[in-house]
Amino acid sequence: xxxxxxxxxxxxxxxxxxxxxxxxxxxxxxxxxxxxxxxxxxxxxxxxxxxxxxxxxxxxxxxxxxxxxxxxxxxxxxxxxxxxxxxxxxxxxxxxxxxxxxxxxxxxxxxxxx
Length: 114
Known about the structure:
Layout: H1 14-24, H2 29-34, H3 41-49, H4 56-65, H5 70-75, H6 84-94, H7 98-113
């Protein structure tokens, strides 16, 4: 990860990264809580509002449930980006609605099949 510079974007808080990751999977806080029965639903809700932060073991489980790397949750970096351009593409894709993301992926698959 590159050091922060004056023109670096601000680092998003963990609860915002959790919300974005859940949204990218089309999941609500309730959906995430259902997949983590070992944790009280209210606790999961507090993670998503920023009132509490998950312990490491729960963070790892959250990453698995949300299909994102724990490093991406912790470091606010898109997964698997090899270049600045890939990082930008991943960031932009995560900001799209699930419907728009699916449409773009279908277009990309069609292009790679030709």
